Amino acid sequence: MSKNRYLKYFNLFALFDTKRTRDIFQINPTIPSQRVDAENIEIDLYCYNNNNVTLSHYNSVEQLNIQLSNDTITWINIDGIKKTEIEKICNQFKIHQLINEDILSIGQRPKVDEIDEVMYCLLNMLYFNEQKGVVEPEQISIILGKNFLISIQEDPARDVINTLREKLKISNSKIRQSKADYLCYAMLDMIVDHYFLVMEKLGESIETLEEKIIRNSNKRTLAEINSLRKELIVLKRNVVPVREIMNGFIRSENELLQERTTKYFKDIFDHINQANELVENYRDMMMNLQDLYLSNVNLRMNEVMKVMAIVTCLLAPATVIGGIFGMNFEVIPIAHQKWGFYLTVGIMLFIPALMLFIFKRRGWF
Fold first, then answer.
1. How far apart are CA 74 and CA 254, in angstroms?
2. Where would I find the beta strands (DSSP E) of the chain?
3. Nearest Cα to 195, choosing from 234, 147, 163?
4. CB–CB of 173/164 below 8 Å?
5. How many helices (H) and strands (E) does the chain have?
6. Phi/psi of residue 35, each to 5°?
7. I need a labelling partner for 320 at 20 to 30 A (CA). Which of 66, 327, 352, 364 fits?
8. What is the C-alpha separation between 300 and 303, in angstroms, rounded?
């Protein structure tokens, strides 16, 4: 156990591994994505209005028996993506093929589209893996239609909208009294709010790294700087486009969005602007940390060079005196005296001691 504990500090190649870089940058939207279908999917069907709410659970789209009504709002939440199931739900609600392709895509840029009679929104929920120290995105697709909303997630094990499900159980709540567009707002608001929790974790990592750099700058801290910069790239890639999504909702004249709901999307717009500013601040902090690392390395090198220069200066008198009395001449002053050796050694020690005193008085060390 002790061996494994300290062995990781010698494996610097793992810290500079480029696999994470490939995962971040190797995204080509022109190449058809090869998504692996989920083994199982879970479908939660919520039908609610101000008076009551019902919840049904299914494992297949074929089991769904949906009767849309003007008196109730229908929310279909699908955890896990299967191509056949997504095609079935799209055919059932007459959703355009382009939206179907976007749902099945991998690494798609967050966006909002208005196609036919629905609004489609794609973005990523973000999680911070504290064990690996990485930001992990999970794609979520939101389809807003008349009196219905469909949300499709990749991973059923993680979710940031559980609070929304709890709010649906509260009678006379704002969400129960509103249309499907408010449900869409509430979902986007929770996703954006969770961005701040991820950024808070990254901020703590940056502060910890700053203390490490100040105490001891080495190759490991340089690797951690490089790793955190990659995670900031992931964060920025997923946060910045959400501003365009909110602009799309605010400026849209679609009948699916009520005028009174627009102010709520403006609130998310303000939050995402703040998130963008924090991302830029973190980016500046990482640049400052890199400069701090280089400054500490240069300072340490200067300290080493200063010590070596002082040692060289202190040994120079002894070297000169030893060279003079080591010459092959017959007549050398005090060379043949009994006290000559002790006098020479004394001079060799006295001059460096005097030099040390002068250096100290001048404040050179």
1. 19
2. 42-48, 53-58, 73-79, 111-115, 118-129, 134-145, 148-153
3. 234
4. no
5. 12, 7
6. -80, 135
7. 364
8. 5
- In angstroms, the CA 233 to CA 240 distance is 11
Give all strands of the β-sheet with 73-79 in edge-to-edge order.
Answer: 53-58, 42-48, 73-79, 148-153, 134-145, 118-129, 111-115
**CA-CA distance, 43 to 80, in Å (whole number)?**
9
Structural fold of domain 11-296:
Beta Polymerase; domain 2 (3.30.460)
**Dihedral of the alpha carbons of 208, 214, 220, 224, in degrees to the nearest 10:** 40
CA atoms within 13 A on the CB side of 42: 11
Q: What CATH class is the domain 302-362?
A: mainly alpha
3 state DSSP class of 194? helix
Tokens of 68: 């849309």
Instruction: Kindly give the residue spans of alpha helices, DSSP state H, lying in 108-179.
Output: 162-168, 174-177
Instruction: List beta partners, residue 152.
Output: 78, 141
Q: Which amino acid would we find at residue 266?
A: K
pLDDT of the chain, 365 residues: tens digit per residue: 444 444 444 444 455 556 666 666 666 666 656 778 888 889 999 999 888 899 899 888 888 877 788 889 999 999 999 999 999 999 988 899 999 989 998 888 899 999 888 999 999 999 998 888 889 999 999 999 999 999 999 887 788 888 888 888 888 888 988 999 999 999 999 999 999 999 999 999 999 888 888 888 888 888 888 888 889 989 999 999 999 999 999 998 889 998 888 889 999 999 999 999 999 999 999 888 888 888 888 888 888 888 888 888 888 888 888 888 878 777 778 777 778 888 888 888 898 898 888 888 887 77
- CA–CA distance, 232 with 119 (Å, rounded to integer): 30
Name the amino acid, one letter, at 298. N
